[in-house]
Amino acid sequence: MNFIKNLFKKENNKSDIASFEATELQIAVSKILVRTAKIDDEFHILEERKILDLLSKYFSLNDTDSKNLLEIGVSEEKSATDLYAYTNTIKKSLDLIERKKIIEMMWQIIVTDDNFDPYENNLVWRVAELIGISTRERVQIKKDFLSTLNG
């Protein structure tokens, strides 16, 4: 009996994956968050969970769609050669307030593993520049975010 239940669960899961169609913006944000998590050459389970949570909340996705979007982000980020393609999508699609939220999400990923890496800070700097966030705004986003962590 359990075998039959599991079989139906697997079939339903396949249809969920097939029915999820990510937008260009969703894929771009997923790739940025995955790149942020992997920039220090480690992709911790805590970072994966944080990305799932961020994608779910930001795009109002259910768990299955968030997982599918993360899988797409991981797969496409591997073949990405530069940041421009997906930062350009973000810049064209979002206003300044929403672009600032993307930078804050990057910081949420960075602090997840309790390990600040210079490459992470450099990535935030490059992404911020490419999506039209000034140095002053980028520094303020980091300062505000870190102050929320400290109380």
Quick description:
The protein is mostly helical and 151 residues long. It contains eight helices and no strands.
Q: Could you please describe the fold and organization of this structure?
A:
The chain has helices spanning 2-19, 24-38, 45-59, 63-79, 84-93, 96-112, 118-130, 135-149. 79% of the residues lie in helices and 0% in strands. With 151 residues, it is an all-alpha fold. The N and C termini lie far apart (52 Å). It has a single domain (2-149), classed as Orthogonal Bundle (TerB-like), CATH 1.10.3680.
Structural class call reads mainly alpha
Separation, N- and C-terminal Cα atoms: 52 Å
Mean pLDDT: 87
Element order, helices and strands?
HHHHHHHH
For the record, the count of structural domains works out to 1
What portion of residues is helical? over 70%
- What is the name of the CATH superfamily? TerB-like
Rg calc: 17 Å
CATH class: Mainly Alpha
> Mind summarizing the main beta sheet?
none
CATH fold naming: TerB-like
Mass-distribution shape:
globular
Task: Give the CATH architecture.
Answer: Orthogonal Bundle
Q: How are the SSEs ordered, and which strands pair?
A:
Layout: H1 2-19, H2 24-38, H3 45-59, H4 63-79, H5 84-93, H6 96-112, H7 118-130, H8 135-149
Helix pairs in contact: 2-3, 2-4, 2-5, 2-6, 3-4, 3-6, 6-7, 6-8
